[in-house]
Amino acid sequence: MSESTIRWESDADGVVTLTLDDPSSSANTMNDAYVASMGETIDRLEAESESVRGVVLTSAKNTFFAGGNLGSLIQATPEKTDEVLAQVTLVKSQLRRLETLGVPVASAINGAALGGGLEIALAAHHRVVLDDPKVKLGFPEVTLGLLPGGGGVVRSVRLLGLTTALLELLLQGQQIRPGKALELGLVHDTAADRDELLAKARAWVLANETAQQPWDAKGYKVPGGAPSSPSLASTLPAFPANLTKQLKGAPYPAPYAILSAAVESLQVDVDTAFTVEGRYFVDLVVGQVSTNMIQALWFDLNRINGGSSRPDGVDAYAARKVGVLGAGMMGAGIAHAFATVGVDVVLKDVSTEAAEKGKAHVADLVGKQVSRGRMSQEKADAVLARIRPTGDAADLAGCDVIVEAVFEDTALKHRVLSEAEVHALPDALLASNTSTLPITGLAEGVSRPADVVGMHFFSPVDKMPLVELIVGRDTSDAALARAYDVVRQIGKTPIVVQDSRGFFTSRVFGTLVLEGAALLAEGLAPMSVERAALQAGFPAGPLTLLDEVTLTLPLKIRDEAARAGATDDHPGVAVLRALVEAGRTGKSAGKGFFDWEPEKRVWPGLTGLFPSSDAVPFRDAQERLLFAMAVETARCVEERVLNSVEDANIGSIMGIGFPPLYGGVLQYVDQYRGAAEPGVASFVARADELADAYGERFRPPAILLERAVPAGSLRAALAGASS
Ligand code: NAI
């Protein structure tokens, strides 16, 4: 038997304090030990009910309770449906027994209570929460393709009402702060510190003889009414349509399951409601989408924290003083990222005045964080104080890391890097934020090419979590490991790729947007091109994306590749050239595929250039976008631009908008369901079909043919190939 994860302490007044404290981990999760401990605890509470006056539920960890056990959820397959259902039913019945003990139960929420954590807290009759900006409450399940299956849907809709629970908690997975939780009625009280927290919870218990949940009281009316009430009955039919609109038609099952579970749970008694919720939960858990999303967004992140793409045998590194060259949009964002985690920054531009502009941009960013309650004024002042704007390279003295973000020009980058090299510490890391220029070529401009690495941030830097690290011909393992650690230091996610044209992200992103342009040329109406992408799960359509990055960027990458000898017959290129020739370079010019002023709308001239026809079936259009990216990624693996399947998956989701529901671009290949069994063989067969119909760019590369393996094993097969 494992040790109990719940400590029991009773006092002279008969108040039992239950402290969640899993001895095997730094956080409490819903693992087997928790279920066993909770079972024993409830048995004991029931057995000793005569002497128990009430219960206070709290935690000894930094967080209250971290939530579900993703390690076991990800292994749930359709064959395990009954097993999963039994487990979730058990968890719920325990919480149900707790709330119907007949004695008052108060949660003292001392830290974040997310997912399963909030579900436990909701089973108490009274909730006090520590009023600290680090404490967050919420149901992030939807972001992993799941719903809260431990009673979270049932209790939150009964407590807050259908509309509030759906919009504020369930459908988008927001994490809310204590003040907001109080305002919504999710908690009853807040406390300034831990002592007050426990004292308030205990005082409430002592002030109440018995307690029951509001929904167990006779005549309880759900706030906002039942689904059959006139107010809801008139608005309810619009919910699914609104959801489809919000999801832009993307096939994410969880929001629809949440909506159905919430509505149906209100039409039955509480115990039946738990059964309804459980059924929807299990459907999602055993489905492929949640597996994909958990794997990509959770486990691969853990892997990145463990750092498997980081070279072994190099000591952990932390930047102390960073020199950022170029105080434009990217440079300012990079300075903000470092200063926020307490690193001193020298922000260098052509003049102090130019550098000051970059610092002013950082001031705007932290100002917004303060006004949204995400940063204290004190911290914002400290962040700004750490940034020293300058026009003088001599001020780079003492920097151990240089990040270059000047204009995209090789000669200029050579100049600023070699100048920085003279003034910074003799072994400083020399990183470039270039999005297109080969790192090996940039390293030729300095005397220490082994210390040069690509550190490709995405725009806007403060929002985008990914950083693509690029290894040039001469980049040393030590430099790569330092760069990796520095990216982790600012809380971002690194992937590692080898130097090549467009690296991984720009190259594969290029295939997406060019495919969108090709579809337009073949007669798909502009809004159909966009809809094909949105309905496949992309966050934006390719024509919108092209306008946002400006049409000249992909052309520039193609031109450079052509100069290096690549042949280029992609039909999308001609479309981009036609628009650029018409002066329509994108959003920054106010006009591209769309007119952006006074509001976004398709440029009427497009139909004249590319008359619509119905030559491309809609399903083909959708799959061409997904396949274009997947085939190009496979080529990147074949060419060893990418060494890790995980880097491809996480990079495609976080950097270039590949739909998370597929779990990443190579997971899509691995799970593709065509006419045949899901797996690489089906993908290969369909890619061949697309190649025959639309062009050789879809022809699957040899690496996929060699490894036309059963679903789920591409990861292992490719790992074998690159070792
Ligand atoms: P930007 O035009 O906003 O900023 C460039 C800055 O460099 C300007 O402030 C300019 O005064 C400064 N500069 C020029 N010569 C200099 C010198 N000799 N010494 C110091 N500073 C000098 O450009 P942006 O968008 O910030 O891009 C910078 C780099 O980041 C480029 O290499 C670009 O390819 C790359 N990048 C851009 C992304 C984007 O979305 N804009 C995304 C990822 C990378």
UniProtKB/TrEMBL annotation:
InterPro entries given for it?
3-OHacyl-CoA_DH_NAD-bd (IPR006176), 3HC_DH_C (IPR006108), 6-PGluconate_DH-like_C_sf (IPR008927), ClpP/crotonase-like_dom_sf (IPR029045), Enoyl-CoA_hydra/iso (IPR001753), FA_oxidation_alpha_subunit (IPR050136), NAD(P)-bd_dom_sf (IPR036291)
**Listed GO molecular functions?**
enoyl-CoA hydratase activity; long-chain (3S)-3-hydroxyacyl-CoA dehydrogenase (NAD+) activity; NAD+ binding
Q: Read off the SUPFAM superfamilies from this record.
A: 6-phosphogluconate dehydrogenase C-terminal domain-like, ClpP/crotonase, NAD(P)-binding Rossmann-fold domains
What is the superkingdom listed in this entry's lineage?
Bacteria
What single Pfam family name could you report for this chain, choosing any that match? ECH_1
Q: What is this protein called?
A: Short chain enoyl-CoA hydratase /3-hydroxyacyl-CoA dehydrogenase
* Alphabetical keyword list: Fatty acid metabolism, Lipid degradation, Lipid metabolism, Lyase, Multifunctional enzyme, NAD, Oxidoreductase
Which intervals hold domain 3-hydroxyacyl-CoA dehydrogenase NAD binding?
321-499
What are the 3-hydroxyacyl-CoA dehydrogenase C-terminal domain coordinates in residue numbering?
502-596
Q: Which family does it belong to?
A: Belongs to the 3-hydroxyacyl-CoA dehydrogenase family.
Catalytic activity, reaction form:
a (3S)-3-hydroxyacyl-CoA + NAD(+) = a 3-oxoacyl-CoA + NADH + H(+)
Question: PANTHER family from the xrefs?
Answer: TRIFUNCTIONAL ENZYME SUBUNIT ALPHA (PTHR43612), TRIFUNCTIONAL ENZYME SUBUNIT ALPHA, MITOCHONDRIAL (PTHR43612:SF3)
Q: Which organism is it from?
A: Blastococcus tunisiensis
Q: In which pathway does it act?
A: Lipid metabolism; butanoate metabolism; Lipid metabolism; fatty acid beta-oxidation
One biological process GO term for this chain? fatty acid beta-oxidation
